[in-house]
Amino acid sequence: MSSHTATRPPAARPPAARVVLLTGPSGSGKTSLAARSGLPVLNLDDFYKEGTDPTLPQLPDGGGADWDAPLSWDADAALAAIDALCRTGRADVPVYDIATSARVGASGLDLGGAPLFIAEGIFAAEVITDCRAAGLLADALCLRGRPTTTFRRRLARDLREGRKSAPYLVRRGLRLLRAERSVVARHTALGAHPCAKPEALARISAAGAPNAVGAAVPS
After folding, report:
1. Tens of pLDDT along 120-132?
2. Which of 21, 66, 91, 160 is the right S-S partner for 84, CB 3.0 to 4.6 Å?
3. How far is CA 23 from CA 42, 62, 142, 178, in A?
4. Could you tell me which residues are beta bridge partners of residue 117?
């Protein structure tokens, strides 16, 4: 399956910053790694569609919306925010509440002159092709680890934050546990480099080096 191809507005100026797209299975540690990098972070999960959106994909078992399918996410809006951050250093982004499946506000993200930032989320790989074509991409990474570890970390986090009902979270967790290797394979096919946290941090550091020129080519 190919990545989402979104329509960007005409570029008004060359990019002043570049983006590291950080993806991986839910619970793989993307958010904590992005925070450790010290770079500005765009949370791509805030671009989920709302629960009332008629275009939401549904689970085949009738269990409701499939929030792990790319079509549950607004790729066009996410790409527009990435483009604005790269070209102007600032973007207005939604604030999304996963527990209620709704946007509850908006906020401004300002890079403060930083030449590099991270956009992290389970659907980040969907915009790799577009970001590379626009000259915005510094690197694209997919965190991977032991599926059982990811399962435990994800379930503990989701229960702690009350993201959905406990039965739903357990069913989702087991479904994602079975699908984790295929999720990583899909992200890799879309252009993300699969790696563990130490390598990811090293590549992010390299992308931010003063002599880093052009977009990295994930291997």
Report:
1. 999 999 999 999 9
2. 91
3. 12, 27, 5, 18
4. 19
- Which residues have a Cβ under 8 Å from the Cβ of 158 and sit 6 or more positions away? 164, 169, 172, 173
Q: 133: which 2 tokens?
A: 């074509």
Contact 188, 219 (CB under 8 A): no
Q: Is residue 88 a contact partner of residue 66, using CB atoms and an 8 Å limit?
A: no
Q: Are strands 41-43 and 18-23 parallel, antiparallel or unpaired?
A: unpaired
Q: Hey, is 85 helix, strand or coil? A: helix
15-30 residue pLDDT tens? 999 999 999 988 888 9
Alpha-carbon distance values, 126 to 22, 65, 78, 159, 184 (Å): 11, 19, 10, 27, 13
Residue from 125, 126, 119 nearest 5 by CA: 126
Q: Where are the beta strands (DSSP E) in the chain?
A: 18-23, 41-43, 90-97, 102-110, 116-120, 137-143, 193-195
Report the predicted TM-score, pTM, of the whole model to 2 decimal places.
0.80
Sign of CA dihedral 101, 41, 197, 124: positive
What separation in angstroms does the CA of 53 have from each of 40, 48, 97, 102, 162? 30, 10, 15, 10, 22
